Amino acid sequence: MNGHYMVEAFLKIRFKQLYRGLTGIGLFRIVFLVLLFAYLLLFLFASTKKQPGSLYVAAGTVFIILSLHIRRKDKLFLKTCFEKHTQIYLSEYAALASIVILFLAVHLQWIALLVLLSSIFLIARTDIKPRHLHTLNTKFQSFIPASSFEWKVGIRQSFFIFVPVWIIGFCSSFFIGSVPVALLTLGIIISGFYSQNEPYQMVILYEKSVNRFLYGKIGMQITLFGIVAFPLILIFIVFHSNKWYIPVIEFLILTSIHAYLVLTKYAFYEPNRNSQAAQIIGAIGMVSMFIPVLLPVIWALSVLFYIKSQKNLNIYLHDFH
After folding, report:
1. Residue 132 pLDDT level (bands cut at 50, 70, 90)
2. Cβ count near 190 (within 10 Å)
């Protein structure tokens, strides 16, 4: 199979996976996602009309693609099975950014478009996943409670990105944008910690009721992120006391998004299986990091997914009321 047909076949598989994920979330949520997608299109179209909005949109798109590229787990498979695996990366990321690319071209925002296209090209051709992360253990991980295994795994896999970002943010905190950017980056990294569904034995291990289980997961998430974020917020306030509210508000927003992602995970929880529906709906939370007007939607969905999580987890935790 030549390179062109190989890429075409792989993209068809991706679209079929997306279709299966959408059909699994129900008619009501599909309608909601369509309306949300339409709103997002209008927002992106308006934001890409002129600078600096076009640059912000391009940078946000690059950041999302970079996060996906770092996290994707099929790199070894693609390298082994496909000679031109970088073409698959390029095609996937170009398809993902196609709407932004179109809007930037329509509005003649050539600088932002060049930044986006060149970044996609560089990301696709760079293997930036550090080696041996699955066996990396550090002192830092030993301080994480055993019950928060998501953080232990997440830190192990993102250690060489997580720690440098924190250090750079702290050491350059005299620049007003340094800490907010570091917090956002760390928040995005942490948002991936709850993307994997654990075995059901890990759910029933601590013999908690459904409510205690969910409160414990969300509470631990907020506590650990707070420990990470507090020194950054404090040093920001030391240098920029009149702007103290910036990192505080950012922390509150990120924690609400993290709570939403936890609830999304357990609303669609299946042991040892990653739900396509949860990934699609969870992506709304990721997008809201860059489009704060979506936050009321996230908060409303969090309430709905808490109720759904209760019903879903009751199958495993009904003996511990």
Report:
1. very low
2. 25
